[in-house]
C-alpha cells in the first residue's frame, strides 16, 4: 500500500473576477507574473522545495492554460510514478455531477484521491498567492504541538485586521477564537488560507459537513473542528506574502520585483522558483534602446525605451516607443512611437504605432470602479489597439478594436471598451 507522510491539495479553480479582463479567458492561478512565471508556480515550487512530492491541483474555471502549463509536472520535478502532480477537475459521478461549490466541497469531492496515499497529514493551499514558505517547518510545528489543525497566520497592521479572517491564540499558539472580518479585531494574526490537517480529522470534518451548501474551510470546517474540541494552532509566518487578487496588488507585486533590493527575490539559489518555460531565443536590445530597472524576458526585442517595467518573453517594443511602470505579458507587439504609462497588457496583444496609453485625468471607472482603478490601463489578451489612439486611466479594453471604437481617436479615462463576444 502507498504511504505518504504529507500530501498537498492546491485550490486553483478561482475565477479571479477582481482581475477583470485579465481573467476573462484564464484562471487566476495561470495569470503571468514576474516576466516568466505564472502565479501557481509559487505554491508548486514551495511544495517541491519543502520535500512534498504529491500535489493534487483542483481546477474548475477556464482550466486549459493551467493544465497545459502544469502538464505532467516536469519543471517542478513532480513527474513521478507514485504521487507527483495530478490535475483534479470536477467530474461526472454515478449518482450526481456537481461543480465544486466551496473550497472544502472541492476537497471533499476528492476524498478518494487523498485516501490513495494514506497520508498522515494533508496540506491545503491556495493557488493565487505569491510567497516562499517551507511547509516542512510548518509540519514540524504541527507535530511538536500535537495539533489536529495548524493554520498559517501572519501579523497584519491592527488597522487593517478587520479585512481578514483573524485568529486569536494563547501564549502557546493554541487558537482560542476565530473572527471573520471583525469590526473590532482581538488580534492582528490573519489567516493565510494555508492549513495542515491530521488526515483523520480532515476526513471526519469533510464527511460530517458534506451536505453544507458551498462548504468552505474558513467559514465551516475550521469552526467545526474548533467547536468539536480539536487542537488548533496558529503557525506565525513573517516572510513576504501577497494576495494578488486585485489589479492594484498584482501591479504592485510585479513592481516590487524590480526594487533596488527586492522584498521578494526571484534569484535566490537555495529556493528556486520553477516554471514551464518555452524554448525561445535570447533577447535582443537594439542600439536605440534605453532600459532601466526592468525585468526583460527571453526572446524580447527592444528598440525603444523601457523604464521600471516587467516585460514577458517574446515582446517587441518598437523604435521611439516609451514604456513606463507597466507589466507587459508575453508575445505582446508594441509598434513604433507609442507612449505607455502604468498599464497591464495581457498576452498576445497588438498595439499599433503612435498609440498613447495612460493619459488624462485619474477619474474612476464608470462601469466597475472597484476593479479598474489605481490609475491603470488594463488590456485583455489577444486585443488589438489601432494606430494613433489615446487611452485614458482606469480604463479596460478587450477585443479587436478599430479606430471607430474611439470617438475622436480617444477612449476617455474611466471608460470600458469590450467588443462583442468578450466578457468583462
Automatic annotation (TrEMBL):
It comes from the Bacteria. It holds the Pfam family NTP_transferase. The keyword Nucleotide-binding applies. The keyword Transferase applies. GO terms for molecular function: ATP binding; glucose-1-phosphate adenylyltransferase activity. GO terms for biological process: glycogen biosynthetic process. It catalyses: alpha-D-glucose 1-phosphate + ATP + H(+) = ADP-alpha-D-glucose + diphosphate. Pathway: Glycan biosynthesis; glycogen biosynthesis. Keywords: ATP-binding, Carbohydrate metabolism, Glycogen biosynthesis, Glycogen metabolism, Nucleotide-binding, Nucleotidyltransferase, Transferase. It is an enzyme of class 2 (transferase). Its EC number is 2.7.7.27. Residues 8-257 form the Nucleotidyl transferase domain. The record marks 60, 99 as: Could play a key role in the communication between the regulatory and the substrate sites. Residues 290-360 form the Glucose-1-phosphate adenylyltransferase/Bifunctional protein GlmU-like C-terminal hexapeptide domain. CDD domains: ADP_Glucose_PP, LbH_G1P_AT_C. Alpha-D-glucose 1-phosphate binds at residues 100, 165, 180-181, 191. Belongs to the bacterial/plant glucose-1-phosphate adenylyltransferase family. NCBIfam families: glgC (TIGR02091), PRK05293.1 (NF003670). Homotetramer. Involved in the biosynthesis of ADP-glucose, a building block required for the elongation reactions to produce glycogen. Catalyzes the reaction between ATP and alpha-D-glucose 1-phosphate (G1P) to produce pyrophosphate and ADP-Glc. This is Glucose-1-phosphate adenylyltransferase. It comes from Lachnoclostridium phocaeense. The gene is glgC.
